[in-house]
Amino acid sequence: MNNHLIKNSILFICLSGLSISDTPAETPTDDQLLELEQQIEQQEKAKQRAAEDARRSAEAQKLKEERARLEEERRKLEEERNKIETARQDEIIQIQKEEEAMIKAENEQREKFNDFITSGHTALETKDKTNALSNFQQAVLLYPNNMEALTGLKKAEELLDPFCYKFTGTWEQPGWGGETVKFYENGKVSFKSTVVYHENEWFCHPDKKEISMDILNNVSNAPLYSFKLSNDNTKIYFVKRNQLYLQKISDDN
Questions:
Q1: Separation CA 228–CA 91 (nearest Å)
Q2: Which pTM value belongs to this model?
Q3: In the Cβ-directed half-sphere of 212, how many Cα atoms lie within 13 Å?
Q4: Long-range contacts (CB closer than 8 Å, 24 or more residues apart) made by 36-45
Q5: Sign of the dihedral defined by the CA atoms of residues 165, 168, 174, 175, in that order
Q6: What is the pLDDT at residue 223?
Q7: Mean pLDDT over all residues of the chain?
Q8: Quick one: average pLDDT of 60-83?
Q9: CB within 8 A of 247, min separation 6: which ones?
Q10: Backbone torsion region of residue 190, taken as left when φ is above 0, otherwise alpha when ψ lies between -120 and 50, otherwise beta
Q11: Closest Cα to residue 228, out of 213, 209, 215?
Q12: Rounded (10°) angle between helices 3-16 and 30-125
């Protein structure tokens, strides 16, 4: 049985308006069959259109959901990118701050160093051993390999006690006829007369307020002389022979 025959059977049943029974049905006309066939075709087309609309609606909904999913992923990626960029900028700012802090600290340290060096040289010039040592030691702590600081410290360590510098210079005993004794800052002492010249070392004793020297270069039985300084710093007296003294004639070394 083909489709045309089935349609005709359906058309016949629909036109008769009767259920299958013993009552004979009226045969529909061709026009009635044609009209009913057209109605059925329209209903089928409507169903097809409805199915197509439903399919398209479902696809549209699926596409909408896919777009929403992609948009959400894009948003999350953008958010993550922004977080990474923010973290990178924060890191750059932190590095800049640390560099600025290091530069500031270095400048402050260099300024302190320069102050110590300046004060150290001033102390060297005034023979202030305590302050010279203190300032150059601080400078070396800041820059252990700095030659200026190391050299200054060495010079400070070589300084004598401030009291000892009162003896440096040239001294002469009245009536000797040109004989002079000269005390040098480096601890050397020289004796000069018209016929002899001796050179040796002198030693300072701040605790006793004295200096001592072996003026004759350890000649047998030669005495080790000791001197005390006068209150006005212009004379030095033999410790054991107060009536003998040397008078300062020059501060030159």
A1: 71
A2: 0.53
A3: 10
A4: 36/11, 37/7, 37/11, 40/7, 40/10, 40/11
A5: positive
A6: 52
A7: 82
A8: 93
A9: 171, 172, 173, 174, 234, 235
A10: beta
A11: 209
A12: 110
